[in-house]
Inverse folding.
């Protein structure tokens, strides 16, 4: 057979990683050896023949790989593979493949598979790696100091334990008095499971079960464990691969400790609290600049420790806040006490506490009353010094000039109120679009009563203000999540180069917009998006399910953005918000698609609610 | 052995295939490219064959023969993309038919709109061997028509075209057009149709013939 005669198949195979690394002759030989099967939902599972392992290449349809315990390992779609673990290990098939959508699958026989592994190192490496990690997070990277540490140096020893037959109430009481978030469940002196705060919430409370439930019914059985001699890095990998935060440490069949993600975080050289403490001890700009050089490393360590994106945002923002405050204090030491009360306002991402890498400044000054000439001069000097200091510490000047050093954004309470009044009561679409960051404002320095007088007034005007809310909503609907009609990703291109998915502007920014519109409609004071969503859920403005979905989507997309930037950082690439989906495992691709779907639905929700259109 | 004996034997060889359960059966997806639609005046340009063993298409034994014809490809070149000079490399209709009978012995054929392909093959076999033969095939078009007519009364034009049928089962769009790709497309469609019937281990080839 001339392979070109079966062009549709060769074309498809040729485009798949790692088949794309094969030379033409090898590729043709490979295509020629395939057999084609079709699997229908009606038969539920792909019949995997134990005596005849093969590589399954998904051409169409959707499948799900689950292990013996029914745990989901992977979701597969076009261009994904299954069956390779048995091919590589020679062990019999233990996972099951459920058919979610009917699909066409190509089968590659073991002989050809082995031949291709010999022919192409990339091919071999691809499947070995996929086997080793089942290709979960490819974007893990190693912070240097973490690779040498042993688990024993970070874990808490003498772990809290409880008997297999104890009740969850007893477990909860023990956890409370020991002030820990997990307890190891012991049966016959051996580790049988682990019970965490999350298990108590998800498997007991959320299910409406009683405190008399035996722990063994709520715990995670056969948890992943490591020995105390393992590398911290291994622990991090294991935790992130399995999305767990607690790792029992077992030596010679005996539970000797627990390692939590917080322990790992604490083990980092750039602890956020230390860094903030250091900032507060510095007495001049030069030393503040030196200290702020640690901020990128802090971000890296937080990302490697798999901290929640929300936590990372809060931690980084608290560093910016501390730096800003220190700059204000130091400059006041030079300039003398301020002639009146004032607040330093942070807008946009700093306001929302979701700063990440390469943030620019968005700030303003709120004055208690109209300054005379001398006072005006004082604040001009102060703000210029602080903004310059921030710039030199790595927070570059705002390209849109929204900064306290710009007289336009150095206003009295009355002037700020008038400014907001104009945006709210005579909203012009374009002006409003630029104004949206001002509605995410927070006071970094100054008397809270002054800031409250501004915020209370603003919220009183936005609350239930139909015209304003419709305008805000229409603005936020200018962008939509990057999903095509068939739920495939829509990639942005720059000329010939595929830039990928803009996780910020087509993901998190849209969720920020949605949360902002709702919060302003209800007069909610929170500005952090996660807190806004929580407050909206608690006041029944968004129903529980939608709120949790939206919060999860926000966290997930932000997490992807951060780990992508972590990857870019460790590979010395320019940091950007663009993610190339082909670098993702199929499971992560699926989750990302689901997250964007949630954003899409939430957009439809605000459209209906605030503009009364579909 | 006379040619007449060989066609009889060929016919007999197909009989056991009819009794098989689909998941155990041995079938052959076939597609022809022709110069036109009339078996008596038009000629076969190429034949594509892909075996379907135990419910799976075997690309390792996929084969295609281009056939030398009398005269020019003419109009049909615009459909099949086969041009005269490519056919120079082809085989004679005699050897193509011998090859076809040899490869498909003992296997039931599968084709989309099988009467057309079978018609051409039967005429060609008669010309080559001097013997009339009745070929048997599962017709994926007829299967689809039956299935759709159970749900609706009237079928719109184009509903039963190979591409349209495949789209209903979520099968990929194949842009390339040759006998082998069409045989592949038809074979995949049959797999999808059988999967939609439910239990793979129950459906027999006889039922599929009957349904078509």
């Amino acid at each position: 057979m001339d392979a070109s005669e079966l062009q549709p198949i060769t074309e498809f195979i040729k485009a798949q990683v790692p088949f794309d690394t094969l030379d033409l002759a090898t590729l043709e030989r490979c295509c020629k050896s395939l057999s084609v099967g079709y699997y229908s939902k009606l038969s539920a599972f792909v019949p995997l023949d134990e005596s005849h392992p093969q590589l399954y290449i998904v051409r169409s349809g959707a499948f799900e790989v689950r292990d013996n315990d029914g745990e989901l390992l992977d979701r597969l779609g076009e261009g994904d593979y299954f069956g390779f673990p048995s091919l590589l290990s020679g062990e019999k098939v233990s996972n099951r493949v459920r058919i979610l959508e009917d699909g066409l699958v190509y089968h590659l026989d073991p002989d050809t598979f082995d031949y291709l592994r010999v022919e192409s190192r990339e091919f071999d490496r691809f499947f070995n790696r996929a086997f080793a990690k089942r290709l979960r997070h490819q974007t893990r990277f190693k912070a240097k100091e973490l690779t040498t540490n042993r688990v024993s140096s970070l874990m808490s020893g003498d772990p809290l334990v409880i008997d297999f037959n104890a009740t969850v109430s007893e477990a909860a009481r023990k956890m409370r008095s020991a002030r820990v978030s997990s307890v190891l469940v012991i049966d016959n002196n051996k580790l049988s499971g682990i019970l965490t705060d999350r298990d108590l919430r998800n498997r007991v409370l959320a299910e409406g079960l009683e405190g008399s439930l035996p722990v063994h019914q709520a715990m995670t059985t056969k948890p992943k464990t490591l020995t105390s001699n393992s590398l911290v890095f291994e622990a991090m990998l294991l935790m992130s691969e399995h999305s767990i935060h607690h790792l029992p440490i077992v030596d010679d069949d005996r539970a000797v400790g627990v390692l939590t993600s917080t322990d790992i975080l604490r083990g980092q050289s750039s602890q956020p609290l230390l860094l903030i403490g250091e900032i507060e001890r510095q007495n001049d700009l030069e030393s503040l600049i030196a200290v702020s050089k640690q901020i990128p490393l802090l971000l890296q360590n937080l990302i490697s420790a798999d901290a929640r994106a929300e936590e990372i945002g809060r931690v980084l923002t608290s560093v910016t806040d501390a730096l800003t405050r220190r700059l204000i204090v130091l400059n006041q030491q030079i300039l003398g006490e301020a002639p009146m009360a004032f607040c330093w306002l942070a807008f946009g991402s700093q306001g929302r506490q979701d700063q990440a890498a390469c943030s620019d400044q968005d700030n303003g000054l709120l004055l208690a009353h109209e300054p005379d000439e001398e006072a005006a001069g004082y604040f001009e000097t102060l703000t210029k010094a602080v903004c310059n200091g921030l710039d030199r510490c790595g927070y570059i000047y705002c390209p849109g000039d929204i900064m306290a050093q710009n007289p336009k954004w150095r206003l009295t309470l009355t002037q700020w109120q008038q400014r907001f009044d104009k945006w709210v009561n005579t909203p012009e679409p374009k002006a409003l679009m630029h104004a949206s960051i001002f509605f995410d404002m927070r006071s970094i320095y100054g008397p809270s009563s002054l800031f409250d007088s501004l915020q209370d007034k603003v919220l009183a005007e936005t609350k239930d203000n139909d015209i304003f809310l419709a305008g805000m909503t229409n603005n936020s609907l200018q962008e939509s999540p990057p999903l095509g009609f068939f739920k495939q990703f829509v990639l942005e291109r720059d000329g010939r180069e595929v830039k990928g998915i803009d996780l910020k502007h087509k993901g998190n920014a849209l969720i920020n917009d949605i949360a902002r519109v709702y919060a302003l409609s209800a007069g909610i004071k929170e500005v952090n998006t996660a807190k806004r969503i929580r407050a909206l859920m608690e006041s029944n403005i968004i129903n529980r399910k939608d709120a949790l979905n939206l919060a999860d989507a926000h966290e997930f997309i932000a997490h992807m953005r951060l780990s992508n930037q972590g990857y870019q950082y460790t590979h010395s690439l320019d940091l950007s918000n663009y993610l190339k989906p082909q670098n993702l495992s199929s499971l992560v691709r699926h989750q990302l698609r689901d997250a964007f779907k949630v954003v899409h639905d939430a957009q439809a929700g605000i459209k209906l609610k605030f503009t009364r259109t579909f | 052995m006379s040619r007449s004996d060989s066609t009889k034997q060929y016919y007999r060889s197909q009989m056991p295939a009819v009794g098989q359960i689909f998941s155990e059966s041995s079938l052959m997806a076939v597609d022809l490219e022709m110069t036109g639609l009339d078996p008596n005046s038009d000629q076969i340009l190429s034949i594509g064959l892909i075996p379907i063993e135990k419910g799976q298409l075997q690309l390792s034994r996929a084969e295609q023969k281009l056939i030398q014809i009398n005269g020019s490809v003419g109009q049909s070149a615009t459909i099949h993309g086969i041009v005269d000079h490519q056919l120079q490399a082809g085989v004679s209709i005699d050897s193509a038919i011998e090859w076809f009978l040899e490869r498909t012995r003992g296997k039931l054929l599968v084709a989309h709109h099988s009467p057309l392909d079978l018609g051409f093959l039967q005429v060609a076999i008669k010309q080559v061997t001097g013997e009339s033969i009745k070929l048997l095939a599962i017709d994926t078009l007829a299967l689809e028509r039956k299935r759709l007519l159970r749900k609706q009364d009237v079928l719109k034009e184009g509903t039963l075209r190979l591409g349209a049928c495949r789209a209903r089962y979520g099968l990929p769009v194949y842009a390339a057009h040759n006998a082998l790709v069409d045989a592949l497309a038809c074979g995949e469609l049959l797999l999808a149709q059988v999967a939609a019937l439910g239990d793979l281990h129950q459906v027999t080839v006889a039922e599929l013939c009957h349904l078509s």
